[in-house]
Structures are given as structure tokens and as C-alpha cells.
Amino acid sequence: MSRFSALTALLLSLPLLAIAQSPLYGQCGGNGWTGPKTCVSGATCTVINDWYWQCLPGNGPTSSSPTSTPTTTTTTGGPQPTVPAAGNPYTGYEIYLSPYYAAEAQAAAAQISDATQKAKALKVAQIPTFTWFDVIAKTSTLGDYLAEASALGKSSGKKYLVQIVVYDLPDRDCAALASNGEFSIANNGLNNYKGYIDQLVAQIKKYPDVRVVAVIEPDSLANLVTNLNVSKCANAQTAYKAGVTYALQQLNSVGVYMYLDAGHAGWLGWPANLNPAAQLFSQLYRDAGSPQYVRGLATNVANYNALSASSPDPVTQGNPNYDELHYINALAPALQSGGFPAHFIVDQGRSGVQNIRQQWGDWCNVKGAGFGQRPTLSTGSSLIDAIVWIKPGGECDGTTNTSSPRYDSHCGLSDATPNAPEAGQWFQAYFETLVRNASPPL
Length: 442
Ligand code: BGC
Hints:
It is a single chain. By secondary structure, the protein is α/β, with parallel strands linked by helices. It has helices at about 5-20, 100-110, 115-125, 140-155, 190-205, 220-225, 230-255, 270-285, 325-335, 430-435, and strands at about 20, 25-30, 40, 45-50, 50-55, 70, 95, 130-135, 160-165, 210-215, 255-260, 295-300, 345, 385-390. It starts with a helix and ends in a 6-residue tail after the last helix. Beta-D-glucopyranose binds next to loops. This is Glucanase.
């Protein structure tokens, strides 16, 4: 072979080499998988389930051909408790501070020149806020958080709890555009979602000493209650139910305390929606085998409603359930009669200022909002386990860029903050508004 042709052969082989191996956390096998079946160096192809084999860190026996058998992990059993402790899962636990959000808040504070506002912004970094796993690529960081929480627990003698949001269903955000996700039902999305759940489970089971509380799939089931007239939601119904059922069962197997997302007072809290909502939650729960670690529902996630409004916001007119407490009190009996555990957590992270919306359904970076009541177990209601911060204040709800595929017209309304980046991206101006308007003040 001439030097020229040898070089050509080498160059030609490079792209082949590049696609012949899956990256760390990439897929490397499973039913219907036609991509690479070996992993990059330092990763081992591991059977997560029949449909999803994944390159996980480690140097175990690597699957070198489609017929070789990779190492097997199971997603059930293990050292986790199988019977949940009775009562409120927050009781007796320290809440782990998400380093992800703390870093966002600290970086934001560094950009604020006013010393008073800067000091207030820095306080936000100390307030426990849920960490969202909104793409599969982020799941690898969960192990780091759990390891740190475990170490903190060992060194302090206290017990730690990590708060996460499970948010990656295929055809996500079916009635809106701003938070459309990475998986599509048409393109193996349900199996990919199962792989995402398995990835979370694989990490959680390594840290049985750390308690995990999860909010399951914001907006998904609420969309199935009220938005089946939207074809994307109707089309997603089966996959949403199958995905949520899988999440409940698998997360249950490793002792994760779960709250399913239940929209908010201005959505499922309308009297006509209460019973259909309760029926859906109860049915799904029973069909999943009544997983013992399902504790209840999360409400007001990423919304702006008061827990208990001093007077109804005019936009709530016509709904007797004009705040989260009224909604919860109205929904609980229907849940209980359906056999669903009626316990709640309520997001108050951005509910500090009321009467700021032109329509109750406005949800995108609403102008004039402020950080709300701090997380607490003193909720004033035996139905409510905790007031929490679920939406990380300062992360955007949706872009105002009209040429983005994820542009949603709600983000262009006159009560939505202009110049907004993509959902989930940091929105400095909005964070500064939340800090300034915080109530109680920071
Ligand atoms: C976004 C997610 C983000 C979450 C929390 C959602 O609206 O779509 O990407 O993680 O908000 O900020």
C-alpha cells in the first residue's frame, strides 16, 4: 500500500471509529437498537432493560459485538427499604442544597452591583430548591449530589434528603411549546424515557442512606385531564400513562418518595375538573400497583398562586378554589374516595406577589413576581407535608424569540417579561425582579 493510500485508508476509517463506540451514558444496545454496540474506553455496556443498554462508567467486560452479553444491573430490590416510613417524608431530614442552583444564584449575585440586592441574591443560594432532570444528560449528576448528601449525613450525624423533579416524558409539554423536550413518541421516546428513569434509579440505589423526594412530570397528567382536545396531548396519552407508571414503579423500588404533579388551582381546581383529576390520579396509582412510596401530589409547580390568598385575585373570578389551599381541600376528599394518598407539597417559590396576571392561565415569566414563602414544614394544614420551592426562580419559563421552535405565544403576552431566553436557561433580569419583590423580603 502506498503512503498515500495508507493515509486515505486511515482517514476513511476515522469517522467509522468515531461512530463505532457509544459515548459515556450513550445507548449501546437493546431491542431495535441499530447504533454502536460498544462503549468508549472507561465505560461498560450495561443492560438497563430489554430496550435500553447504556454505557455506564467502569471497566467491566465491554460488549464487543451484538451477540456478547453485557453486565446486568437490576432495577429492583437492593438495600433500599421496601416499606416507607409512616408520615411526612420531610420530618427529621435536612434538605440538601442543590449545588446546581446555588451556583446559578451565586453567579447571578456576582452580576448585581447594588450591595443590598447582591446580599439578598446570595441568600437565595441557601434556600433549598428542587433540581430538575429535564434531559437525560443531566442524570449523571444525580450520583454526585447523592454522594455529597451521603457524606454530609455521615459527617454531621444528620439525615439528608435530596429533592428532584423527574421531567423528560416523550412529547413533553404537549399543550404548549416552551418546554418541549428531547424525546419524541414517534422516535422511540417511551423506551428512551424508560432508560432515563433507569439511569436515575441506578444512581439512587447506590445511596440508600439518602432519602430522595421526587416530583413526577409537571403538567403531564393535568394535560390529560383538560387538554385531550389538543392532538399532541391525545396522541401522548398512552405514552404519558405508560411512562409515569414505569417511573412510579421503578422509583418505588428504590424507596423514592413521590408526589405526582397536579397542576394548580386555576387548572385542575375548577370544580368541573376536580373529580376527573382525582379519578385519573387514583386509576393510574392503582394500575401501577399502588406503589407504597407515592405520597401524594405536588401543586402550583412553576406557578404563581398563593397558598392562602387574603382575598381572591380578580382573575380567579368564578372559581371558589381561588388559591392552593382551597384547591387542595376540595380535591382531597375525591382522592381519598379513590384510594389515592391525599398528601401535598406546594410550590411557593415565585408566589410572593399576587394579582399580577391578566389571565389566570398566564404562566410565562410573569412580570412583577417575587420569591415567596420559604420552604417549611409549618404548613397550617394536615394535608400539606411541606411548602417547597420547586421551580428554581431565575430559570426561564420560555423564550420570547418568535423564531424559536419552542416559542410559545404565552411568552409574548403583555404580562410576560420581554427578552427571555429558552426555558430552563438563566434569566438574569427575571431573577433580579424575584429578589427585589420577594415577600417575605430576603
Ligand atoms: C424547563 C426546564 C427546566 C425547568 C426548571 C422548565 O420550564 O423546560 O428545562 O429545567 O423549567 O427551570
